Amino acid sequence: MKSRYSIIGLIIILLTASASGQQQSEPHIIAHRGAPLVAPENTLASFRAAIAMKIDVLEIDLRATKDDHFVVMHDATVNRTTSGKGKVAEKTLSELRTLDAGSWFDARFAGEKIPTLEEVLALLDSSLLLIAELKGSSDDGSVEAQLVQKIVESGKQRHIILKSFEMEVIEHFKNLAPDIPRLFVYAFRIPWMHLIVGTGVSAGSVFDVDAEYLQPHYLLLSSSFVEEAHRRGYKVVAWGVDDEKTMRKAIGFGVDGIETDRPDLLKHILDSTRDPK
């Protein structure tokens, strides 16, 4: 009898451990372009506001300048978010730094500058990660190589995840810096047609991408997708998640991170749903 009860006890312990192992930890709070509802997107003011909200990860967009520096800018031109006009790639860093990147949002931010990669890296501490999405990549991988070199020279590579909508860019990053994690972001996939839709349409499966993270739009999220991704060794980050209902839904799916324009709201939701210690 003692032997039988021991076996039953062992089975209960194993089942309990298995169930416990399936529980998902809280998703990381990923501040999309900082806190863009509080301060002008992709500026130091926006990043500092997000950090004050106790986020886990900053997400930024990077573009190369005419003189091979990297600045934080989503659009190909400076038209929408600065006092200037023209393409980022056709301006030098000194030219870009004369522009006002804050007044368009609110007069309180007049004089805010376009940040450099180095300025953002200086904000990172041991508890904060940075997702850097490269915009304006190159066919030969030269821009990717320049970015990797600057990151490695900074010594902050352990705090960085490299992101792209383009599978070719992800492959370039893998070849250039295999130790820096990669995130593949896309709008949606059509599995039965073997297609992925991002900035364009690509043939293949997201589960063939050589990256550590997959980032689908929240409309494509489901528990079954997250479970399959986890089984295949990927972490899942949702994007476009900016309201409470969608946040709670993404949390329920067990995603590893939620990229949002409202990091303060996500923080509040996670704090309110956390089990009391």
Structure report:
The protein is of the alpha/beta class. The protein contains 9 helices and 12 strands. Helices cover 33% and strands 18% of the residues. The N terminus is likely disordered. The chain has an 8-stranded parallel barrel, surrounded by 6 helices. Strands 7-8-9 form a 3-stranded antiparallel β-sheet, with no helix packed on it. It starts with a helix and ends with a helix.
Q: Could you estimate the helical fraction of the residues in percent?
A: 25-40%
Please count the beta strands (DSSP E, at least 2 residues each). 12
Widest sheet: strand order?
Answer: 1-2-4-5-6-10-11-12
| Unreliable sequence segments | 1-23
Quick check: average pLDDT?
89
Provide a count of the helices.
9
Helix vs. strand class: alpha/beta
- The helix/strand order is HEHEEHHEHEHEEEEEHEHEH
The major beta sheet can be summarized as: 8 strands, parallel, barrel
- How far the N terminus sits from the C terminus, by CA atoms, comes to 39 Å
Shape: globular
